[in-house]
Design a protein that fits this description.
- The protein is an alpha+beta fold and about 170 residues long.
- It has four helices and ten strands, in the order E-H-E-E-E-H-E-E-E-H-E-E-H-E.
- A hairpin with a 3-residue loop joins strand 8 and strand 9.
């Protein structure tokens, strides 16, 4: 079994309920070993939208990376994610951040479908903070140790608030 880190986000409707439903559905297939605290975060890239809830989970799986990506996309659809503009509002967003110690790129028809570790995770404090809560010593190959990456995003710290009233159960 391989340990995978998955980032969760939501900023439409009942954000915590959407994230919890995703965790519950994923838990039927994956062995979820931990969930981070939930953070309320300012939107990034497209800023004219509601704040997000973000968290991360660690899970053990026998699925290969592409099977796991399919499970995440299927789960988003089952939770009710609607197709909108990139980086815009979403009911739930599930991103595969890392898969064991694998560095991996899968392309189809010249388009990258999956790259591991997730190539933009190192620039996103809303991803790094929950991952640091799970294990700050984890190294995202090619990017660095989560703790060091988090330290490099202090300019984003003001936009992230831990929500102790919003807890994901596993």
């Amino acid at each position: 079994m391989v340990t995978a880190y998955i980032a969760l986000g939501s900023n439409v409707g009942d954000k915590l309920a959407h994230m919890q439903e995703a965790v519950d559905r994923l838990g039927q297939i994956l062995k979820i070993t931990a969930a981070s605290p939930v953070y309320e975060t300012a939107p990034m890239y497209v800023v004219d939208q509601p704040a997000f809830y973000n968290a991360a989970i660690s899970a053990c799986t026998d699925l290969n990376p592409m099977q796991l990506l399919k499970l995440l996309k299927d789960t988003e659809a089952l939770v009710g994610r609607q197709v909108r503009k990139r980086y815009g509002p979403r009911e739930v967003d599930l991103d595969l951040i890392s898969y064991g110690s694998l560095q991996y790129t899968y392309a189809l028809g010249g388009q990258v479908v999956l790259e591991l570790p997730h190539p933009r995770s190192g620039e996103r404090r809303f991803v790094l903070q929950p991952l640091a809560d799970l294990d700050p010593k984890t190294v995202l190959l090619g990017l660095g140790q989560i703790r060091a990456l988090l330290d490099a995003t202090t300019d984003q710290a003001e936009g992230i608030t831990r929500r102790d009233d919003a807890i994901l159960s596993i």
